[in-house]
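All the exercises in this workshop are built on plain-text protein records. Instead of coordinates, the fold is spelled out as a row of discrete tokens. Once this layout is familiar, the rest of the handout is easier to follow. The record below serves as our worked example for the rest of this section.
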Amino acid sequence: MKIKKILVYCGVLSLFLVFSSAAFGGALVADLENALMCKCDDKCGKVIINCTCDTANQTRLDFQQHLDSGMTVDQIIKMHVDKYGETVLSAPSKNGFNLTAWITPFAAILGGGFGIRKLMKRWVKRKKTSAGEAPDSIEEPSPTAPSKYARRLQDELDNLES
């Protein structure tokens, strides 16, 4: 009886290993399909997982053959980059000059936010001055040092009296 249980457990375990390795291999192919662009003759510009052309189907078969031969996902990606260049990658690498492709959008959003903030402050300040309120940054003239307009006004008033 014990031998029967052991054989049943071994059978279940072997089935589990077969199905889990097939699912794991499928996940690796999906990782490769997401990481690389299709290099078909139509130049569709799609990621391989979204492309349905014959070139993409052949590439999927090549991925599976490379994985079955023992290559890792990184090795297969490096092989394609060596063959086609960095344009085959669906996302730029995060080193060297390609780092700007990751940083620039966030820097542009921050810069735009600061620019909009500055513009809004200027609009609010302009609205305050047109409504008759003194804006925060304008200082009142000192009464001891008359401006040229105050002197001219005083001269005009003096000429009126005479």
Q: What stands out?
A: The longest helix spans residues 2-35. Residues 3 and 24 are 31 Å apart (CA to CA).
